[in-house]
Amino acid sequence: MALLILNISMAMVVLGIFQACHGAVYKVGDSAGWTIIGNVDYKLWSAIKTFKVGDVIKFEYNPQFHNVMRVTHAMYKTCNASLPIESYTTGNDTITITTRGHHFFLCGVPGHCQSGQKVDINVPRVSAANIAPTPSALVSPSTDVKPPSPSSNTSASIAAIKSHDLVLLALQAAVLFVLFGFSDILA
Ligand SMILES: [Cu+2]
Questions:
Q1: Which of 8, 47, 166, 180 lies 20 to 30 Å from 143 when distance is taken between CA atoms?
Q2: Ligand 1: distance of its center to the CA of 7 in Å?
Q3: How far is the CA of 113 from the centre of ligand 1 (A)?
Q4: CATH tag, 24-144
Q5: Which residues constitute the signal peptide according to the record (predicted)?
Q6: Which pLDDT tens digit goes with each residue over 106-143?
């Protein structure tokens, strides 16, 4: 039994390391991409995702018609593209999120941001693991932070698996299978 628990612990450590260095890839707008056609709701698109440091944000668009500019919050609010922090123009731009907090992007083509071609990628500064004593005033009303699950790491990690992580899931199954297989042989 102790061996079994040890094996499960080892598996969790291995998987944790693997997940930590393999961020998820999010294509902005999903199949619609980065566009003004179809009134894509980029606010909703980002609101229902839980971004983490290490995740990759992918902008796909026709570079003849659009671009990507990372801007400040003030510029984001007013659709001001005059002094971007960073500009991307290839039409297939991948940006790795390396810091917590908000990352504001808009299309710098006149009128496009006003038409809704802007997105706020927010990596919560407070992780679910240590929010317990935080005063509610510090948590923005728009931040949907779930309380920590009372169950074990195992179920928490399973909950974290997203549908697009099928490859990762397969790898996890393989690791667990190998470790359980070894425990059978030893027992
Ligand atoms: Cu545009």
A1: 166
A2: 51
A3: 7
A4: 2.60.40.420
A5: 1-23
A6: 999 999 999 999 999 999 987 555 544 444 444 444 44
